[in-house]
Write a structure and sequence with these properties.
Layout (H helix, E strand, L loop, with lengths): L1 H27 L12 H8 L3 H13 L3 E2 L7 E2 L4 H18 L3 H15 L1 H4 L4 H19 L3 H18 L3 H22 L6 H16 L3 H25 L2
Antiparallel strand pairs: 1-2
Length: 244
């Protein structure tokens, strides 16, 4: 009996998540315009064959995400349909989580590892023009390393990773990365501050990634990217411990 009762909230939560996912897609795809009224709770319940409770939970989640506006006694309305602004809200939520627990930075590194290694499959078919921002960032890293300019080097490092993602040509991925770029830059500045990490080694890791991409060896480039981010994750742990 207890097991059955405990499973009910979990199942209801999954139903609410399904409703949220469906309306997120409709709103962000432009199928529902800002100001448009949402269906009533009864209509949504019929569409998804659920009771009213998961519908109410889904509406609260959509409102928390800033996608709809709830008004007492009236139908909810669509509040936002701009993907860029929506992802900016997500980045703000991530930043709030980080302020409560710096350990979230390690989770950001996991996300970076997935994005920045997989985007390499898109890079091997790009043109020389697509790579110019990447090459410019790499040259800036070299110059900053030679004069031991820490902030300049860290910012060029971040620009290198951003340029690689943008060079992939996937607009949605670029928008997402742009919205977390401030966090990525902060992490890179933090990891670059670890004394044992030399400018020369950091530059060499980035150059190896780029050389593998330009040679068309995507698997080698992926291995180099993962190794680089794994190394950075270790430096991040050192930096976090030193600040406690």
């Amino acid at each position: 009996m207890d097991r059955q009762e405990k499973s009910v909230p979990k199942a209801r939560g999954k139903l609410a998540e399904q409703i949220v996912a469906a309306f997120e897609e409709r709103i962000l795809a432009g199928n529902m315009a800002v100001g448009e009224r949402m269906p009533s709770e009864a209509e949504i319940a019929r569409e998804f064959s659920v009771s009213s409770r998961p519908v109410r939970e889904a509406m609260q989640i959509l409102a928390t995400k800033g996608l709809i506006r709830l008004r007492h006694g009236e139908k909810a309305t669509v509040a936002r349909d701009d993907v860029d602004e929506y992802l900016g809200t997500l980045a703000t939520s991530i930043r709030r989580s980080l302020s409560r627990d710096p350990a979230y930075l390690t989770e950001l590194m996991v996300v970076r590892r997935m994005i920045e290694s997989d985007v390499i499959d898109l890079l091997v078919v790009r043109t020389d023009a697509d790579y110019r921002p990447v090459e410019a960032a790499l040259e800036e890293m070299r110059a900053a390393g030679e004069c031991k300019d820490f902030l300049r080097f860290a910012d060029a490092d971040a620009a290198f990773h951003r340029a690689l993602v943008n060079a992939g040509g996937n607009g949605i991925l670029s928008v997402f990365y742009d919205n977390v770029f401030g966090l990525v830059t902060e992490v890179i500045r933090l990891t670059s501050s670890v004394p044992t990490k030399s400018y020369e080694d950091a530059y060499a890791e980035h150059a190896a990634i780029y050389d593998a991409i330009r040679s068309g060896d995507s698997e080698k480039a992926k291995r180099a990217m993962r190794a680089h981010i794994d190394n950075s994750s270790e430096y991040l742990q050192v930096a976090i411990r030193s600040k406690k």
